[in-house]
Amino acid sequence: MQKQPLLGRTLHELQELVKDLGMPAFAARQIAAWLYDKKVATIDGMTNLSLKHRELLKEGYEVGACPPVEGMRSVDGTVKYLYRVGENRFVESVYIPEEDRATLCVSSQVGCKMNCKFCMTGKQGFTAHLTAGQIINQISSLPERDRLTNVVMMGMGEPLDNVDEVLKALEIMTAPYGYAWSPKRVTLSSVGLRKGLKRFIEESDCHLAISLHSPIPSQRLALMPAERGFSITEIVDLLRNYDFSKQRRLSFEYILFKGVNDSLPYAKELLKLLRGLDCRVNLIRFHAIPNVDLEGTDMETMVRFRDYLTSHGLFTTIRASRGEDIFAACGMLSTAKQDVNNKK
């Protein structure tokens, strides 16, 4: 019988588990502490559980932490890790160290259904949703875990297409029984899916980043098929119903494509679209991917675009590009090659 992982279970789920096994209720918090605070590798390491209860747990369960099977280091210090998530399935996550912080870009799916024109993950297609345990394992088994200051759900997949498991993982990251991180340390990035977006805003306090990339709905549709299901104007209308003026940050991601969305008329449309929202815009350089007829704009144009938005009251930054040489930068994650190689 295949053992079930404990990693990725919420306190409520652990309480149900110990109840079913006839263990005392307080054991649930003890197990949670071992999983998320003390980083135990085996059930035998949970030394404040009785030997009898450890043996009982071991009959059907294991911790379920799995170290990365491969790591690739960029010239800029970024590290891309490959994690196995089931038979012949893999995901990538990216560790980005900086002077005063260290960020992990975490995946939520094997591949992605969204098929954005500019994204390699979308070209891979969709294979599977990750469980909360497989999401949390990217943090738990990270070699640099103790240096981690921030997590961004911006890796492979659309987080809100896997909203149940993602919300469980976010709970574990921020709950007192889990990692007890401030929600300000975690950002979720989404193309904007109607049902999932509403649930995320109402059930989590983590930061939100919306992939925008064009303020013109018809052009956004050409870049992002998800526009058809829930348009950017509908997304913005929904966001206006919530307060982002306090602790929680709302941002919009905008990749600048040469001759496509990088001129002054687009900046003006952005201002119109986002007027009155308490938000910021992150401008991102496009990283060329195979068989896609898009080019990144030059830095001078990016600076001009940023300065125009900022001068008109919309706080705008240019995100530094990291890990491009190892295909770890924004939009470049894909495990299609590993999947194929491991099926041979």
Structural features:
344 residues; alpha/beta; ten-stranded mixed β-sheet; two-stranded parallel sheet; 12 helices; 33% helix; elongated
The termini sit apart by 26 Å
Mean pLDDT: 93
Number of helices: 12
* Sequence stretches where pLDDT stays below 50 over 5 or more residues: none
Helix content: 25-40%
Compile the SSE list and pairings.
Layout lengths: L3 E2 L5 H10 L6 H10 L14 H10 E2 L7 E4 L5 E6 L5 E8 L4 E4 L3 E3 L8 H5 L1 E4 L2 H9 L9 E4 L9 H12 L11 E5 L3 H10 L3 E5 L5 H7 L8 H8 L10 E7 L7 H11 L5 E6 L13 H13 L4 E3 L17 H8 L1
Parallel strand pairs: 1-2, 6-9, 9-10, 10-11, 11-12, 12-13, 13-14
Antiparallel strand pairs: 3-4, 4-5, 5-6, 7-8
Helix pairs in contact: 1-2, 5-6
Provide a quick synopsis of the model.
The protein is of the alpha/beta class and 344 residues long. It has helices spanning 11-20, 27-36, 51-60, 120-124, 132-140, 163-174, 194-203, 217-223, 232-239, 264-274, 299-311, 336-343; strands at 4-5, 61-62, 70-73, 79-84, 90-97, 102-105, 109-111, 126-129, 150-153, 186-190, 207-211, 250-256, 280-285, 316-318.
Can you characterise this structure?
The longest helix has 13 residues, at 299-311. A ten-stranded mixed β-sheet has the order 3-4-5-6-9-10-11-12-13-14, covered by helices on one side. Strands 1-2 form a two-stranded parallel sheet. With 344 residues, the chain is α/β, with parallel strands linked by helices. It has twelve helices and 14 strands. α5 packs parallel to α6. It has helices spanning 11-20, 27-36, 51-60, 120-124, 132-140, 163-174, 194-203, 217-223, 232-239, 264-274, 299-311, 336-343, and strands at 4-5, 61-62, 70-73, 79-84, 90-97, 102-105, 109-111, 126-129, 150-153, 186-190, 207-211, 250-256, 280-285, 316-318.
